[in-house]
Specification:
By secondary structure, this protein is an alpha/beta fold. 28% of the residues lie in helices and 17% in strands. It is built from 9 helices and 12 strands. Strands 7-8-9-6-5-4-3-2-1-10-11-12 form a 12-stranded mixed beta sheet. Helix 1 packs parallel to helix 2 and helix 1 packs across helix 9. The chain is globular and about 55 Å long. Bound molecules: S-adenosylmethionine (SAM). S-adenosylmethionine (SAM) binds next to strand 3 and strand 5.
């Protein structure tokens, strides 16, 4: 096995695999008008997904996150979990979901091998949740989080996209929620996408505002572990859960990048904000192509840049994050 790495000494053990662009929510910052099929090629089949996962596992991928779009909308979502969990070398299968199927399926997915869940929940307030996501099922999502906590998942995290004048003032409600629950809430700074420029201008706010509030209330920043993701984590002795901050606009955010993405139509994205994806699908039709696929991964990784160019307003090809699994 030759580990995937790049020119900057970064090793890649983590793959975010999008299995669909479709989504049933209408989050204002992502798909405000809802998902509309755009005549693109069909999404990867289960066999193609198996070949992607197997090839990545052979070059050192240990963790697979199944994402989308809304990944749980796929009829074969259970099969995707099972195949990823049974791939030699993969020790963690995670998913990012809006949670609408979680209450009914938390146990089943766990039994199939899912070990970590991130649930998007942009507000504890029912009305604001509806306003941001375009969906009224907040209670169902909350029930799903409770079900996941009872099931024994290694980690349950809540993703909150931090939005000025909307949820950025709601830190107290989020803190109350994790006082007695072992849940990590991660505030993600709103990222500028091709279709979301006006929204970005209106609602982007730095995660530093949350950091300052936490520090003034006795929260302390946890030391970073070698395999930690991009979040800065904060703990407090009176709270069971933790708070994480994901600040893509912060200096050195990319230095710890350990993730690669494959889109739902089989393109490799070396960064969430690169100009274009690298075609893999021509090598996904048959098991015999695996050595060639692995060679292409190594070759392309040599081209990965040091950092994204979001600071210069360059959002690359990314029109919205549902297209390549944010
Ligand atoms: N449908 C799933 C969900 O709702 O979590 C998975 C896909 S969604 C694209 C993945 C994550 O990206 C979610 O937590 C979402 O809130 C976040 N996201 C989408 N667009 C974003 C943006 N412009 N800036 C920051 N985060 C964004």
């Amino acid at each position: 096995m030759t580990q995937l790495n790049d020119r900057f000494g970064r090793e890649f053990h983590y793959l975010r695999l999008s299995i669909t662009d479709a989504c049933n929510f209408k989050c204002q910052y992502c798909l405000p008008d809802g998902y509309r099929p755009d005549g693109k090629p069909r999404f990867l089949t289960l066999d193609e997904i198996r070949r992607v996962v197997t090839a990545f596992a052979q070059v050192g991928t240990r963790k697979i996150r199944i994402t989308g779009g809304e990944p749980t909308m796929r009829k074969d979502f259970n099969d995707v979990i099972e195949l990823a969990a049974n791939t030699p070398g993969v020790n963690t299968v995670a998913t990012t979901t809006n949670g609408y199927r979680l209450a009914a399926n938390a146990q089943r997915w766990f039994d199939l091998g899912l070990s970590q869940i991130n649930v998007s929940l942009d507000s504890m307030d029912e009305g604001l949740f509806r306003q941001i996501t375009g969906d009224g099922r907040q209670q169902l999502v909350l029930d799903g989080i409770e079900a996941a906590l009872e099931t024994g998942y290694r980690r349950v995290k809540i993703n909150v996209v931090l939005l000025k004048d909307l949820n950025a003032q709601q830190l107290p409600q989020f803190l109350e929620y994790i006082r007695h629950r072992r849940v990590d809430i991660r505030f993600i700074e709103l990222m500028e996408t091709g279709l979301g420029q006006d929204y970005f201008q209106k609602h982007h706010i730095s995660g530093q505002v949350i950091k300052q509030q936490l520090l003034s209330q006795g929260w302390t920043e946890d030391p970073r572990g070698p395999d930690d993701g991009p979040a800065l984590n904060f703990s407090h002795p009176d709270f069971a859960g933790r708070i994480g901050l994901i600040m893509p606009y912060a200096k050195d955010f990319c230095a710890t990048c350990n993730r690669l993405r494959v889109s739902s139509i089989g393109k490799l994205h070396l960064c969430l904000f690169t100009e274009c994806g690298i075609e893999l699908r021509d090598l996904l039709g048959h098991d015999d192509h695996q050595p060639e696929l692995i060679a292409r991964l190594h070759e392309q990784l040599r081209l990965k840049g040091a950092t994204h160019q979001l600071h210069e307003g360059l959002t690359g090809v990314t029109q919205h994050l549902a297209s390549i699994g944010g």
